[in-house]
């Protein structure tokens, strides 16, 4: 009898242990994976202003004992803009492959004379983030499944927008620059846009912007993503207080499925 009780106790202990280890949510993801590489060209009026690259490493990394996609986002000015304000930015997120939440975030900003570097580690078991920036270290309480600015975008790619009504707004908790905020995105239905590769069916999204001195209104950013399982942004328009910017798809490879363009 003692052996039976001991065996049952051990089973219960192991079960509770595995339950604790597996307390992360599970998000179905057919939209992206290792090896994805996307390049964009940014225009300001009729001028080429910048280039941006979003790439998912072909290698899966282990961070906080969890398998993660490593996503790098690079931004750089080109042409005349590079002479006026030289930008070389690197953003990096290690995104949990199962829960699609960040385990670690890194930022290196080089914009003119401005420099900034930050490291953020996420503790989702205890709902904490540890932020290291310059000489300061902070521990901040956060809500469940909090995102960084990169992982939040990849999480939105897993959403089935066919289940939303036009005008419906999604809210995702996010952490950036030592602050918590709600990442809000409004679904605006479907459309067709023209690209350098041809025309493509798209989903229209509006990130809802809070009042600020840079963007013109809460719907000043318009994003068109491919209406397929990839949900890759193919075009972005931004209304600024002074002028407007447009970002177009320049090159892509390693997608989950081929983008379907037509004439």
TrEMBL record:
<dbReference type="InterPro" id="IPR021457">
    <property type="entry name" value="DUF3108"/>
</dbReference>
<protein>
    <submittedName>
        <fullName>DUF3108 domain-containing protein</fullName>
    </submittedName>
</protein>
<dbReference type="Pfam" id="PF11306">
    <property type="entry name" value="DUF3108"/>
</dbReference>
<feature type="signal peptide">
    <location>
        <begin position="1"/>
        <end position="20"/>
    </location>
</feature>
<keyword id="KW-0732">Signal</keyword>
């Amino acid at each position: 009898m003692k052996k039976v009780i001991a065996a049952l106790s051990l089973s219960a202990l192991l079960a509770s242990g595995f339950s604790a280890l597996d307390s992360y949510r599970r998000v179905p993801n057919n939209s992206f994976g290792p090896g994805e590489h996307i390049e964009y060209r940014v225009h300001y009026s009729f001028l080429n202003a910048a280039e941006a690259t979003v790439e998912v490493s072909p290698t899966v990394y282990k961070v906080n004992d969890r398998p993660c996609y490593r996503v790098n986002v690079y931004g750089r000015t080109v042409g005349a803009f590079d002479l006026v304000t030289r930008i070389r930015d690197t953003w990096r997120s290690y995104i949990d492959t199962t829960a699609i939440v960040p385990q670690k975030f890194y930022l290196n900003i080089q914009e003119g004379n401005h420099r900034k570097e930050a490291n953020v580690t996420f503790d989702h078991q205890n709902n904490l983030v540890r932020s290291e920036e310059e000489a300061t270290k902070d521990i901040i309480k956060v809500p469940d499944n909090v995102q960084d600015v990169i992982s939040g975008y990849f999480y939105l790619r897993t959403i089935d927008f066919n289940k939303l009504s036009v005008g419906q707004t999604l809210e995702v908790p996010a952490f950036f620059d030592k602050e918590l905020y709600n990442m809000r995105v409004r679904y605006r239905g479907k459309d067709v846009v023209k690209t350098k590769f041809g025309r493509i069916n798209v989903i229209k999204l509006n990130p809802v912007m809070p009042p600020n001195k840079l963007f013109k209104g809460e719907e000043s950013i318009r994003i068109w993503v491919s209406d397929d399982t990839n949900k890759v942004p193919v075009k972005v328009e931004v209304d600024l207080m002074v002028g407007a910017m447009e970002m177009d798809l320049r090159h892509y490879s390693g997608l989950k499925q081929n983008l379907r363009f037509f004439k």
